[in-house]
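I had to read the description of the data format several times before I understood it. Each protein is reduced to its one-letter sequence and a matching series of backbone shape codes. The format is easy to grasp once an entry is in front of the reader. For illustration, here is how one protein appears when written out as sequence plus structure tokens:
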Amino acid sequence: MPLALEIVNPERLLLARDVDMVVIPGTEGDLGILPGHSKLVTSLRGGLVDIYENKVITDRFFVTGGFAEITESRCSVLADEIIRQADIDPALAQQALDEAKAAYDAVDPNDEDAYREASDKLISAQAMLDSIPPSATAA
């Protein structure tokens, strides 16, 4: 019994297909979603969405955050921003990290909302840079 996977960003539906399993970056840790999973709504942190078919990762996407809604037969990923892992530009990812570090260093820690937003962006930018395969940075 397959799992219906939908990946959506604010502009459009990016992917809709049946898969064997998907691993998503939940804010409390990675979640492996199989058919029959308990119903769940969770927020996402910056990280990779791994799509499995026949016990092999067939696609990988980087999300900056968002939400996932899971039922026994479906997983809907509602991503703030999403990019195919293979399309991540290492130079742009490094630039995003540098900008996020500067914003984090400049934020007033007493402004809880601004601090949380800057922290989330820093974590996401670092995760994006970390998700680039070593072969892509060696080129």
